[in-house]
Amino acid sequence: MATPAGKHSAVSPRSSGALLGRGPGTVQELRRLPAVPVPADGEAFASWVDRTAVAMGLSPGLAARALGLEYRTNDRVPALFGILPTPASLDGLCTTTGLQADVVETMHLSRYDGTILNFNALHPGYDKPLEHLLGKQWLQLTGSRACPHCLARSDVWPLWWRLGIAAVCPDHRCLLIDTCPACGIALRRGSKNTPGTLLRRTHVTLDLRECGNRQPNPGKPRSPTVCRQRIADTPPPGPGGSGRHPAARARHRRRGSSSAGGPAGHRRGLVRRPPLHRRTCPAGRSRR
Ligand SMILES: [Zn+2]
Ligand SMILES: [Zn+2]
What we know:
- The protein is of the alpha+beta class and 288 residues long.
- It has one domain (14-123, 138-267).
- Helix content is 20%, strand content 9%.
- The chain has helices spanning 45-56, 60-66, 87-97, 101-105, 130-134, 148-151, 246-255, 264-267; strands at 2-4, 18-23, 26-30, 35-37, 168-169, 174-175, 214-215, 225-226.
- The strands form four sheets. It has a two-stranded antiparallel ribbon. Strands 2-3 form a two-stranded antiparallel ribbon. A two-stranded antiparallel sheet has the order 5-6.
- Strand 5 and strand 6 form a beta hairpin.
- The structure holds zinc ion (2 copies).
């Protein structure tokens, strides 16, 4: 459901536009967007950006720029996208949507810092490959697991599906899937060679219920083939740990029976730490 971006916000001096650096050698004028989807409870940031892109009729890469996200070391993916919101991205989102910082922060994996994840070595200015720093953490740096049944009724991808312990959907009591059976690439990875890239140039309208991963197109290198597999049509792995992902198999080995009841950390109430960089948006209140 789209909501006028300024509906619940007071008009700020910056709502008419602000000049912010958005990436190496680029300066972009940010403006308050007319409407953005309301973030769902527990939604992953990438999911919200995708839904915003659909609402705007843009590619995810162009939507990310319109939202004011910070691009730092490359132009393929915003800095620390979905991991930790940078101060520049928070400022940009505040200008373009009026979203308060704490709302944005709860959509990032940094909300689990100090519980199942340890982000002590991570800071907003970090600009090296995250694999070196977070490669051993129980998370998916790019991509996400998913419950096909949940996605049959909603476009929202929960944040906890990106945790390493995410194994079972507590609502449908089925194992989550992590790889698309059609293209063989991890869900929401994007592509094998350039994971996490947010496409800017694409003539294919994003369908949030489809895989959307891209594979090389030898005939048209600049127009990769997009996987149209509907995730809701993907059968979950069978009970008993015969499925694909290691968390489910490990859980099954430990318990000696089929998994049920949801990811342990999630069920046991991961304690949410205060956001690392709490800020307030002068433009107005949260629109949760
Ligand atoms: Zn489900
Ligand atoms: Zn696919």
